[in-house]
Amino acid sequence: xxxxxxxxxxxxxxxxxxxxxxxxxxxxxxxxxxxxxxxxxxxxxxxxxxxxxxxxxxxxxxxxxxxxxxxxxxxxxxxxxxxxxxxxxxxxxxxxxxxxxxxxxxxxxxxxxxxxxxxxxxxxxxxxxxxxxxxxxxxxxxxxxxxxxxxxxxxxxxxxxxxxxxxxxxxxxxxxxxxxxxxxxxxxxxxxxxxxxxxxxxxxxxxxxxxxxxxxxxxxxxxxxxxxxxxxxxxxxxxxxxxxxxxxxxxxxxxxxxxxxxxxxxxxxxxxxxxxxxxxxxxxxxxxxxxxxxxxxxxxxxxxxxxxxxxxxxxxxxxxxxxxxxxxxxxxxxxxxxxxxxxxxxxxxxxxxxxxxxxxxxxxxxxxxxxxxxxxxxxxxxxxxx
Length: 386
Hints:
Elements: H1 23-26, H2 34-37, H3 39-54, H4 63-106, E1 113-114, E2 117-124, E3 135-142, E4 145-153, H5 158-177, H6 181-203, E5 220-228, E6 231-237, E7 243-246, E8 249-252, E9 274-278, E10 284-288, H7 290-293, H8 305-314, H9 320-335, E11 343-350, E12 381-382
Antiparallel strand pairs: 1-2, 2-11, 2-12, 3-4, 4-5, 5-6, 6-9, 7-8, 7-10, 10-11
Helix pairs in contact: 3-4, 5-6, 8-9
């Protein structure tokens, strides 16, 4: 708290001048009051009631009069229903717009090229008409090499978005500070523990701690990659291994058993990174969340991600965006509607030069269905640079 001594003159800071036309009241547009929002329906109802009680023609029992009275009350009722429905729909659209903008800031598009790696990413939300989810990914170039994170927070919606925000914020800072992947993973684990403790206290202040609270059951699967001078190293906590596409061959990046997801269990004392060999020019890594391979068609069959990638590889060399677009198009055809879980996809393609040879921008940078979602399907949000 700032105190001022008695008798000391108060310093007044200059304020920016208000617009000439707006004035003080016009500088900020206030939302309409509820009483004003329902003023028009109230007037309609009052006019219809006055017509029924005071108009002499309304007292007549003829067929024409009854028909006219029914038409008047039907019009008033229809206007009331339409007006009442429009206000919540407007608020819902605004809330979805704000949520989508928040996730766009949080899950920002990866650069189109990072140290010779062309990138393309996209996400699908399990909530119909929304883009908010718990999937997270990021690609950063550091002095330790290119570092990549891919994760999936339990559940979806705003709660999962908060968990993803905590992990992404920690990763973007720790990726430059920690010399090895083990230290980076421990930083993410501590950030998640702090977030879950704060969330448990906020949701249940009198619970005496986070144990026994539903927040204590939250977890996040995390995959960390480090690509330094062509050498690929990884740490995996319960996340699906990426696919490596080399020529016409498609195989998992590694076959080692992953560690448990972050959250429920403490990390082991020793965290050696898994060596995944070299990534030569022309090779592609496809990172994804389990919502991709677990997506089912109406007959209950899982989405064949490996077969889809093999078909792309058989057609010849493909760019990162070509792989992304083909996988997303096949996934949307396979599920035939909304996915049951959030979906995220990140494609890394090692180009032969330090700069990306694939041009960016334009309509070719958009994923299938972007801007024109099919009926019953959630919007596809491509995350490459516009």
